[in-house]
Fold this sequence. Notes:
Layout: H1 2-14, H2 20-48, H3 50-74, H4 81-102, H5 117-137, H6 147-167, H7 184-204, H8 215-233, H9 242-280, E1 284-288, E2 294-297, H10 299-305, H11 309-312, H12 317-324, E3 342-352, E4 355-365, E5 371-377, H13 378-396, E6 401-406, E7 411-414, H14 416-422, H15 426-429, H16 434-441, E8 444-445, E9 455-463, E10 469-480, E11 486-495, H17 497-542, H18 550-572, E12 582-584, H19 586-603, E13 607-611, E14 615-616, E15 618-620, H20 622-639, E16 645-653, E17 656-662, H21 670-673, H22 691-701, E18 705-711, E19 714-722, E20 732-733
Parallel strand pairs: 13-16
Antiparallel strand pairs: 1-2, 1-5, 3-4, 4-5, 6-7, 6-11, 8-9, 9-10, 10-11, 12-15, 14-20, 16-17, 17-19, 18-19
Amino acid sequence: MRVISLGWTTSIQKTSGEKAPAALSFIALISVALSYFGSFFLQTPWENDPIFLHSAFEGACISVAVFTFLTMWQNYERCSHINRVIGFGFLLVGFFDFMHTYYYPALNHHPMGFVDLSSRYWLLGRLTEGITLTLGTFNFFGRLQKRWVGLIITITIGLTLSYAVYAYQGLFPLLLTENGGVTAAKVIIEYVITGLFLLNIILLYPTINREDSIIEKYLVVALMIAILAEKAFASYASLSSFDYTFGHVLKVLYYFYLYKGLFASTVSHPYRYYETILNELPLGIVNFDKQENIRFVNYEAAKLIGVTPSELIGLNASDFEKRFYRNREKCTIRDVRPDTKRFYNFLRTIEYGTAKVELELSGFQFSRGGWLVYFNDAKIAQQFENLQLQTKTILNSMDSMVLVTDARDRVTMCNNSFLYLTGLTEPEVVNEKISKVKHILELKLSKPNKVKKIHEVIEGKFRSMNGVHRDIILNLNSVKGANGNIIGTVAVATDVSSVRKEADRLRQREKLAVLGQMAAGIGHEIRNPMTTVRGFLQLLGEKKQFASQKAVLDLMISELDRANAIITEFLMLARTKQTNLKFQNLNDILDHLYPLIEANAFTQNKQTKYVPGAISSLELNKNEISQLIMNLVRNGLEAMEAGGLLTIRTYQNENRVLLTIEDEGSGISTEHLEKVGTPFFTTKDNGTGLGLATSFTIAEAHNAQIDIESSSKGTKFNISFPVPDGIHDQDTMIV
């Protein structure tokens, strides 16, 4: 019957869709018809030697039941819940069938007067089948993860029921008549079992039209046959009747389909599924076993080599080498040292007939022995690598920062500008979640950066690893794959910090120009009456009748002098051209001012530190630069508590001379930092807000640039002077 039924098994697996019920019913009908005719040929031998044939058929069923359990046991982790329940259930069934066979009446192994014992084990086996399949269909014990627990439960149930059937004879009705026929009680129980089988078919019916239902289809065919087998076992007149023979033939066939379903769903179907996947990969794959014989070759590998898979399977590595490798190059897996588990990108030339192709091979060794070698046409791999290098070169040549992410929001690529401006390294970025990179850079955007369109422009800010805050314009572009789905994003960020700073400087210059024009227009007109008033106040102070008001008059004169000083600073903002510039060294000016700076710091119980560096001479106005330095030093000293340190440092960076004045105050808030240098803006109680504005004007007149770095630990003013061409290596002061 195994030979007869083998042709239908593939058809069962391929059956799906609306026609599945009809197709499965047809397979069951043909199997039953063949079993019916086969039973005619077996009837005479059965009558002549019922003991042998009964034992043979039952032995076949017991073997199938045991193999069903062993197949499930060996593949337990890959088994579905229904496979696990069937495996344990049919271990019980095999045990009950063995007891049924052992106590078969003709063998006379049963105790005296206990001829029903064999039939009772028989019905116990059939009931176990029905209950097992029902439990599997209802997903009972679906969470049973430990197979030893299931085995212990199964053995316990089997021994308990077997003992109950054997020990408590009076609890069970009579099942066989004196001539070996069936009683009404047995008929009823057989029909109960038939009802369980029918219930299982009804429960399985909704699933059989699905392509991924494997064991369910086999079970439907098996249960259709089992129902007819139970009908035969409920109606036989004697142990040598045709119905008895026919029932056993159907039982073997029913067990075969059930075992085939479990084997197909657990072993053969997954193997073919993964084999199909490997065959569809655009990558050549060859599997060598422990003895270096080829066990598997996918279609792409055979195509690249120029043969069919069947020509390679079974070949030894050395035979493969002699047959296909050019110039007798060594087999790839022999190029690897015994202690090496992996190898990458070996180039080998395959020569088959007149065809030659260079392959790029990689592979690894399995922990249990054997090798998996995968490869591709080296030209294709080289073209892909060249394309990647071209893409990376293009990205690295861009001044803008570029970050590429995949569909899972992981960074796949970044360019050199991104690494340079952020201060990150490539291992810190690539393969990391974009959210982590954003967190490190403290990225803040003007709106949520979830790409909702193909292209979106967003303004933002980030903080580089060296603490510098940068303004960016972020262009977000979603990348669509061939199927239209978004497979990633490309973010192109342009650093606009310098542009915005320059724009701020231009606005500041415009403001100062307007203020300067106002100062130039009204400064002299205000000073003239102030001078007159001051003169009269001095005259009044010299007269005896106003001697009692001398202190008030002096206060008025000092206030007029203070107003005149403010006007003088204000007029500085109106200057339109440079005066009295000459080559001199910034260190000389600082050397001259430092004693005064030290004295000011000492009176305030504060400290100073001066670190001059080797710098080039510059075109400077000594008085104006002195005023700039003293303004910044005064601000720094006033910002610190007693004991604070003010550091003045000079150094040269290529074609620029830098002066830094750093204090240890509480820093400038972000809100105030944007207003620093605006005339009349001050946070001091007695300040005018013109000192820093004048300093910015002086720096502008010297083509210098003032940058401010501020935090809770203090503020640092960086004044950068351009070095005139041609004197980078001369007129330097070495300290």
